Amino acid sequence: MSQREWIEKDFYKELGVSSSATADEIKKAYRKLARDNHPDANPGDTKAEERFKSVSEAHSVLSDAAKRKEYDETRKLFAGGGFGRGGFTPGTGYTGGGAGNFGGGEFNIGDLFGNASANDSGLGDLFGGLFNRGGGNRTAASRPRRGSDVETETTLGFREAAQGVTVPLRMTSPSPCTTCHGSGAKPGTSPRVCPRCNGSGVVSRNQGAFGFSEPCDDCRGTGSIIDDPCTDCHGSGIQNRTRTITVRVPPGVNDGQRIKLAGQGEAGLRGAPSGDLFVTVHVKADKVFGRAGDDLTLVLPVSYGELVLGTTVSVPTLDGRVGVKVPPGTVDGRILRVRGRGVPRRGGGVAGDLLVTVKVAVPQKLDATATAALEKYAEAERASGFDPRAGWAGA
Known about the structure:
Elements: H1 3-8, H2 11-15, H3 23-37, H4 46-62, H5 65-78, E1 107-108, H6 109-114, H7 123-131, E2 150-156, H8 158-163, E3 165-176, E4 192-193, E5 202-207, E6 210-215, E7 224-225, E8 238-249, E9 258-261, E10 277-283, E11 290-292, E12 295-302, H9 304-309, E13 311-317, E14 320-326, E15 335-338, E16 354-360, H10 368-383
Parallel strand pairs: 1-6, 2-10, 12-16
Antiparallel strand pairs: 3-8, 4-7, 5-6, 9-10, 11-12, 13-14, 15-16
């Protein structure tokens, strides 16, 4: 994409957000649009596929703080139409006479901003990148462009997330062309250096007192020309392919955590490095287990008699069962700790603990025998002097 196209595109409009949207609002809007327009959800729908590409491109710029800042500053500067294609509109910053007002000779606006000092709020970097002054070295804008990062999501069961799992992800995204291996040229041929710009990707031209640089029309700013394009990718070096990526989710991953897979994102232009793939993991709730950091939690139902007399109960863990001893006289709600039977810690080391909360289960109905026995016990309890509300509420 040329600088002009980059400036003229309204990435905020593509995502349906305002220019003051927060990073979370941008992310939320992108996820909804990407999900609605994903090729897998709209097979054969070319409009949805193009829409998917557009929102992905917008997200790749607006989700990167540095790219977004440069994009916002550039659009603000160009919003008034001060700079035309390769020219300078009178009355928008230059109101003097001829070149003599600058001490004679040709004035190159790329030189002015390209040599700005560190106190010029980054204008040197901004305009140096925009105008791409020519020369022996290729500029950043004319180098093969790294592929955009790609985001996707996966949902795991609680125990899968705690123990770690390998999951296949089926994705449709721009990938290196398998025929030309990303070069864009027909197999057996190679791109050649553009003779007009000598591989720089930009050409300079003069307009009155000013000298400007702009993308080379012959090579479209790439610095190279493909005489015999690959028939499968039409010279782009990129194809939209559906592929299955195997993702190893490490043990102990949290709900909402992102996993980075370097080089698994969108393919770079003409052999440039691919972007990265970021997988957001969602974890389902479990009927038995909960989690507190690296500790595994569960609630153990027990009877009143078991709390009073004590017992040993078999409870589940992530890898089997373990016996938990309930000491005599245990109070309802007490937490019993079983060390090392919790969630495996990321990076290795000893796992967290299993925290077992005992909760007395009260029967809703009793038969005559159980009722008589309980009434006899209550009498014996009162006779022993036990008062459950002794000292309670000032008693």
